[in-house]
Amino acid sequence: MKEQPGHIDQRELARILRERWGLAPGRLRHLPVGFGYHHWELTGAAGGRWFITVAELAGGWRGTGPAAGYADLRASMETVTAVRRAGLEFAVAPVLTAGGQALASLGDGNAVTVFPYIDGASGDFGDGLPGRDRLALIGILARLHGATPVARRTALARSPSPASRPALEGALGELSESWSGGPYSEPARRLVAQHAARLSRALARLDELARAAAGNGTAVITHGEPHPGNIMRSRGGLLLIDWDTAGLALPERDLWLAAGDDARAAGRYAGLTGRRVSGAAMDLYRLRWSLDDIALSVP
Q1: pLDDT tens over the chain, length 299 residues
Q2: For the whole model, what pTM was predicted?
Q3: CA distance 91 to 105
Q4: How far apart are CA 90 and CA 84, in angstroms?
Q5: Which of 276, 296, 281 is nearest to 206 (CA)?
Q6: Which one, out of 69, 183, 194, 240, has a CA that is 20 to 30 A from the CA of 86?
């Protein structure tokens, strides 16, 4: 994501922006930021600015082909649009096309979304949150989870089992054969083989936690990744960006990242929503994240 992708024709991207959004670029500059998608800053002829995202739709955490990936991303973008329209000002929603769509196709297997350009600063995934920001984020998530009725028409259900799980299970079943996906394939195979028993136990533990958390109330609309890298500090307060994993799930899908082991934050959430934070569900989503990271790193 740090280098401009050679497989994306920037002239074609400019054409899509002009035809679908009515944006005539004065300048289109690739931005070496983010993870998973490619980004550009668009400066219009009249001086307006937009943040452009091009998503590669096949594979990855979605574990799907381009058509299903497009439908998944469209559902997420329509969901954050509905949330924003409901008055949740912290939700950064896409700019719709002239035809009222949240995204547009670009070539084979890519999708374009356009966002307002926001003057602000975000952190990185591993950054810590100051206590005041953590409690403010808990307040934001309580409001988001309470807005579930406005999102039910568009939001997809997000399974606690990662979409990449079949790839990890497949890798565990192919440890006796050499891996030839690239120069790191064999070192990766040896590393997975060394920890195969532990990974198998982790998958079984994931299923146990899912069963234990299943009785923890109804699903709510979740952001999916409310970590410091997806939180912007602007003059208006904290904003949540990067809603491409939004969907219906247990609230702990958000809370394990936002509250962590902070009992005060968990207590604030319970006080705001009347819903106790489940330790089993917190462990479920924490483990799910780790397994997803591992699965995405094996051929």
Answers
A1: 556 776 788 889 999 999 999 998 788 999 887 666 899 999 987 789 999 999 988 765 555 678 889 999 999 999 999 999 999 999 999 999 999 999 999 987 899 999 999 988 888 887 888 889 999 999 999 999 999 999 999 999 999 998 889 989 999 999 999 998 889 899 999 999 999 999 999 999 999 999 999 888 899 999 999 999 999 988 878 999 999 999 999 999 999 999 999 999 999 999 999 999 999 999 999 999 999 989 888 86
A2: 0.92
A3: 23
A4: 8
A5: 281
A6: 69
